[in-house]
Write a structure and sequence with these properties.
Blueprint lengths: L3 E7 L6 H10 L4 E6 L7 H14 L2 E7 L12 H4 L5 H20 L4 E4 L11 H17 L5 E5 L5 H11 L4 E6 L2 H4 L5 H8 L3 E5 L2 E2 L11 E2 L8 H10 L6 E3 L6 H20 L1
Parallel strand pairs: 1-2, 1-10, 2-3, 3-4, 4-5, 5-6, 6-7
Antiparallel strand pairs: 8-9
Helix pairs in contact: 1-2, 4-5
């Protein structure tokens, strides 16, 4: 039986992790990823709060999703120039922030560190591609002595480009956090078929759903799990076939009571799918 959990967005420093983790247990969930876009939150005091909450509740933190600053533009038009480590103007600064996230993850006992790298160029001789690969190799070397792994968040690059990048980094501690909707939202590929390309590198998941873009500048629309184009039953079947044993992390990119309802519906969907595997 797979562990089912959610992505928790850590958007205020004093977030009550004990309360949030107990809320997960009430929803019959037992694990989570923590997503943080505020590097200033990475303090020893915060680490102790998270460790104490995990110890009291038994909730497992499976990964830290390490965001970076400044904020970029989440669209097709300006995303390539503003997101991730690809833009040279931001690369060194953001690499340092992801390393800080990795250091914090180590303090809370988490081995997997995730981020969006950005719109990786398709051609391997592009200077931004070469520079990004070098930065990621540097990151993996930073993580290796502590047995930590860097995971690509999928979606802003094609599956083949991601596969080639992992091969060019050439480190054993690099893998993938497979977001089942992002390839669709960015118009980059088919989630089921992508597993044929890079499935052996998948170490963690964002189970999310969405529809294709309807214009050339903006992303597609995220929708509740099971209602979009991600084909979650086939994705999980294929992952099961290649031996994926990691957690099933639900992501729903809205807030409020509807988010809670959609997560609960997603949990029930995953339980039904698991019966067929």
């Amino acid at each position: 039986m797979h562990h089912i959990g959610v992505l928790i967005v850590w958007s205020e420093y004093n977030l009550d992790f004990n309360k949030r983790f107990k809320d997960l247990l009430e929803m019959e969930l037992d694990c989570c990823q923590i997503s943080c876009w505020h590097p200033e939150f990475y303090t020893d005091e915060a680490a102790e709060r998270i460790k104490a909450a995990a110890a009291e509740t038994g909730v497992t933190v499976t990964a830290l999703w390490a965001g970076w600053t400044p904020a970029g533009e989440w669209n097709i038009q300006f995303g390539p120039q503003t997101l991730g480590l690809v833009p040279a103007a931001y690369r060194e600064h953001r690499l340092a922030e992801v390393k800080a996230g990795a250091d914090f993850a180590y303090k809370i006992g988490v081995s997997d560190v995730v981020t969006h790298v950005g719109f990786l160029p398709e051609t391997p001789d592009n200077p931004d591609y070469i520079g990004t690969v070098a930065a990621l190799r540097n990151l993996c070397r930073h993580l290796a002595p502590r047995n930590q792994n860097f995971l690509f968040e999928t979606g802003q690059e094609t599956p083949m480009t991601m596969l080639r990048t992992i091969e060019m980094i050439g480190m054993p501690n690099v893998g993938i956090n497979f977001d089942t909707a992002n390839l669709i939202l960015y118009g980059r590929g088919n989630s089921v078929d992508a597993i044929e390309v890079f499935g052996k590198y998948v170490r963690n998941l964002h189970l999310k759903d969405g529809n294709l873009p309807t214009d050339g500048m903006n992303l597609g629309r995220e929708v509740p799990l099971g209602t979009g184009r991600a084909n979650i039953p086939q994705v999980l079947k294929r992952l099961e076939e290649i031996g994926y044993q990691g957690p099933w992390i639900i992501e729903r990119e809205i807030t409020g009571e509807q988010q809670r309802k959609d997560i609960a519906a997603g949990r029930d969907l995953l339980r039904e799918i698991e019966k067929t595997l």
